[in-house]
Design goal:
Strand 8 and strand 9 form a beta hairpin. The mean pLDDT is 93. The chain has one domain: YbaK/aminoacyl-tRNA synthetase-associated domain (YbaK protein, Alpha-Beta Complex), CATH 3.90.960.10. The strands form 3 sheets. A 5-stranded mixed sheet has the order 6-3-4-7-10. A 4-stranded antiparallel sheet has the order 1-2-9-8, with no helix packed on it. The protein is an alpha+beta fold. The protein is built from 6 helices and 11 strands. The longest helix is centred in the middle third of the chain and has 9 residues.
């Protein structure tokens, strides 16, 4: 099947590609209880050597610049306690970690989680972290602009491959909350 966004020649329903996904993502798709059928989540194979944004959109379609989202792991600290959350914002923006996210977590300080922490806690590869299959109990903060898109390109849990997910599906993922002002213009 042809992908609904980008110039990917082959897109397959993600539940048919479980062997190509990391365990947390495959498990999430096996137990998908969303109002959007799991078969509407698509998997596309991509070249990890073309992961840089400029090269990626040049190769797989310029429309992906406006229809892709980044999932970042944030650590919030208050006293000796650390809490984690994932933020999903359009690739053309950045998550307001020090403002919106810090307040939402009730933290004194918030920052991007170190790579080893993010990959260790999620079971996903750096550069491929996705909101599908996050650890239980984590808040998933989603920018409204992501939800508004018919399809969004996100990581698959690995650097190779991406998921194409209907925007409306993100609000039904465990711990999801749409947060106004989460995505702010990226510094140019």
């Amino acid at each position: 099947m042809r992908a609904p966004i980008g110039t990917f020649e082959h897109a397959r329903p993600a539940p048919e590609c479980l062997d190509e996904l990391v365990a947390p993502v495959a498990d999430a798709l096996r137990t998908w209880a969303d109002g959007v059928p799991a078969e509407n989540v698509l998997y596309v194979d991509t070249d990890p050597d073309r992961a840089d944004t400029a090269v990626f959109v040049e190769h797989y379609g310029r429309d992906l610049l406006e229809t892709s989202a980044n999932c970042v792991v944030v650590a919030g600290r208050r006293g000796g306690d650390t809490s984690f959350a994932a933020c999903l914002v359009l690739s053309t923006t950045r998550a307001d970690v020090n403002g919106v996210v810090r307040r939402r977590l009730g933290a004194r300080k918030a920052s991007f989680a170190p790579m080893e922490t993010a990959t260790g806690l999620t079971g996903m590869e750096y550069g491929g972290i996705t909101p599908v299959g996050l650890p239980a109990g984590w808040p998933l903060l989603v920018d409204p602009a992501v939800v508004a898109l018919p399809y969004v390109l996100v990581g698959s849990g690995r650097r190779r491959g991406k998921l194409l997910v209907p925007g409306e599906a993100f609000v039904r993922l465990p711990g999801a909350e749409v947060v106004e002002g989460l995505g702010v213009p990226a510094a140019g």
